[in-house]
């Protein structure tokens, strides 16, 4: 790899006498210390007064042009015996070099096969150009290629957001290099590793960096086979982390046993703001462990703000745990339990918790087998809760009676700004005029919510959207 020489390469150390052991005998310690002396040469010209500045990795980035970046990349490809990546050439052609002195939006390499030589050639780009996002999704990285690439990203601060998803051939050496990159790179804020298996022999490499502290704020480890021993190791490391704000752990086959580790994490870590556990198997028992941790997060200055439990085999029994947490927790702002068969009894069990809670702003209930009875219960909750701003009820069996109750509740509620419901009833049980009546109620509900939205103070709206997750643009109401 063509790398500017490090500062240590220019330092020469001379030894005039053999090194002695630092473990001296106690009886000779004082004698050896008394024989030491410090002297300076009489000729001041012999005193070393010079020094070397540290190497500037971006010396080539001071005045960049499209021609310089392209020609140096092509020349580097020839040197390493590889063909230039066509998509890279196209992207380099289109960069607005004259308009920006900051980072460019992205360098997208997904689905390209990157061997060691191809990665080495990219150094001529990173010497001159920095990016917000570097997409390495499904690029066939192995140990050799990933080590070279991670070292370059670390040295040149190449990107703030890195995606290495679907690279199943990265081994121990590659993850060691990734760990070094995380510890030493000051600009890296997001790392995405979806569908990249991290077994108990690999997860310690990543966990070491997370334990000692990084600049990382978003970590996506979806579908990484973390159930069992790996989540034990990861959770132990994250207990000491004070920078990570968003953690995505969807599709890891977690069960209620794994929820014990996640509960321990939430009890110790009060800087984590978003936890996405979609598409796991936590069930009601696992929710009990998580809610036990939420009950201990009572400080407004820190604690979980968003909890996503989409499709986790939850039933109405989980309402007991959520109700208990909502009565004491004062940090949670968004709860998504969509695509769980919780039914109407779930909302009945939440009446007390949602009535007392003054922090929850968004509730996701999409595809939870609700009927009009559940909508009527929700209307009672809306009458007693002045803080809820958005509720998602899509893909439920709400009929005219349920919508009518919601419309009445909205007229007296002053906080709801968005109520997501289906345009048409899921089932039409009565006569043809039911569809028209249903449509009229949908229009009425949306008009009421729209009026509330227009009158809502901007500060409240900003609080609603403060922690919008990266991987779920429409939360609550996540679809997979």
From TrEMBL:
Basic and acidic residues bias locations: 1-10
Keyword Repeat carried by entry: yes
UniProt keyword Repeat, yes or no: yes
PANTHER family (alphabetical): LEUCINE-RICH REPEAT, ISOFORM F-RELATED, PROTEIN PHOSPHATASE 1 REGULATORY SUBUNIT 37
Alphabetized Gene3D superfamilies for the sequence: Ribonuclease Inhibitor
Ranges of Low complexity composition bias in the record: 11-21
Any Pfam family hit: LRR_6
Listed name of the protein: Protein phosphatase 1 regulatory subunit 37
Family: Belongs to the PPP1R37 family.
Region feature Disordered, mapped onto this chain: 1-25
Keywords carried by this UniProt record: Leucine-rich repeat, Repeat
Chain's gene name: PPP1R37
